[in-house]
Amino acid sequence: MRAMKAMVTLAEIEAAQRRIAGYAIRTPLQPSPVLSRHVSAPVYLKLESRQTTGSFKLRGATNAILALDQEARSRGLVTASTGNHGRAVAHAAKALGARVTICLSALVPRNKVEAIRNLGADVRIVGRSQDDAMDEVERLVRAEGMCFVPPFDDADIIAGQGTLGLEVIHDLPQATMVLVPLSGGGLAAGVAAAIKGRCPTVKVIGLSMERGAAMAASLVAGAPIEVQEVETLADSLGGGIGLGNRHTFSMCKELLDDVILLSETEIAAGIRHAATIEGEVIEGAGAVGIAALLAGKIRPGGPTVVIVSGGNIDPAAHRQIVETTEVGVMP
Ligand SMILES: *Cc1c(COP(=O)(O)O)cnc(C)c1O
Fold first, then answer.
1. Does domain 58-148 sit in CATH 3.20.190.10?
2. pLDDT (tens digit, 0 to 9) for every residue of the chain, 331 residues total?
3. Residue with the nearest Cα to atom 8 of ligand 1?
4. Fewer CB within 10 Å, N or C, the chain?
5. How much is the pTM?
């Protein structure tokens, strides 16, 4: 039944908000005086980098697992992410007492493997690519009847991510623009549905890196397409949207007012600005909104919210970016 309906509704997002209360925290909306002066409009940062597990992914993962009935949950959960989704699923499963298996390829760094293992997940190292890890997920679903928790293209995941949009529009009802990082589109679809459900005139802009942005390329092409994945500072924005995409492509097509692409230099400037001016450690994917404002690629006409989606960055990489002498904008 559910597969027939592409769009996630405001009512489903409101239900998700009630469901995940107590599991995910309500993150702060912090004014940025320096960015406000830079763009001559009030700018606020929605700090999901301070969310439990370091990204918004906990919202969708928790909502999706809570939506499963006890029988499905008791069969055990499984997913194959190397990053924030895997950590969120491992955390939510632990909080809800569900057995969870996270499949990782041998290329995943040891510190990430340990972080997921420390949450009590059964970690399986299989093959040397994300595709190999996904093959193992499919095998576990078939052979052991485990329940797959998808990363973005799922109504409960989208509704969970959308709860962040409800918080934004509650805290800043006068907002005229919201900037949202865009990869598979679970975050952008959920946030746009929440914001436009409450305030239809607010502009919602998606932000990706210049190279290897699958949703951006698919929106231009008019249908889901594959793009080559390349290394980027915004590592959490990599990966495809699925050629059989059911929800996020049509929702992004319908609800996003524009998509803006950022260069690696611009993303680095966003990370650096967050650290030196705002006092926030954020990862590349979380920095694209700040980067777009610093680069003058977006000119807000009124109060603007930048969604800072995550903070999980390797400390050594962060130090190197911040210590580079080039500066974004001075106070
Ligand atoms: C997953 C992720 C995104 C992108 O979310 P999608 O729902 O895949 O578009 C953005 N930022 C961070 C930090 C993420 O972990």
1. no
2. 444 578 999 999 999 999 999 999 999 999 999 999 999 999 999 999 999 999 999 999 999 999 999 999 999 999 998 789 999 999 999 999 999 999 998 878 787 888 899 999 999 999 888 888 999 999 999 999 999 999 999 999 999 999 999 999 999 999 999 999 999 999 999 999 999 999 999 999 999 999 889 999 999 999 999 998 888 999 999 888 999 999 999 999 999 999 999 999 999 999 999 999 999 999 999 999 999 999 999 999 999 999 999 999 999 999 999 998 655 544 4
3. 184
4. N
5. 0.95
The fold for domain 4-55+154-323 equals Rossmann fold (3.40.50)
Query: Is 53 touching ligand 1 by the criterion CB < 6 Å?
Result: no
Contact of 49 with 282, CB cutoff 8 Å: yes
Give CA separation, 191 vs 134, 206, 295, in Å: 27, 11, 24
- Say yes or no: CB of residue 49 within 6 Å of ligand 1: no
User: Which atom belonging to ligand 1 lies closest to the Cα atom of 83?
Assistant: 15
Residue 245 Cβ < 6 Å to ligand 1: no
Distance from Cα 236 to the centre of ligand 1, integer Å: 6
| H or E element at residue 203 | strand 203-209
Q: Residue 100 is encoded by which pair of tokens?
A: 């969870």
Q: 84 alpha carbon to ligand 1 midpoint, in Å?
A: 8
Domains 4-55+154-323 and 58-148 share a fold: yes
Instruction: Provide the token pair at 172.
Output: 């800043």
Structural domain spans, the chain: 4-55+154-323, 58-148
Residues counted in the chain: 331
Q: Give the nearest ligand 1 atom to 48 CA.
A: 13
Nearest CA to ligand 1 atom 7: 186
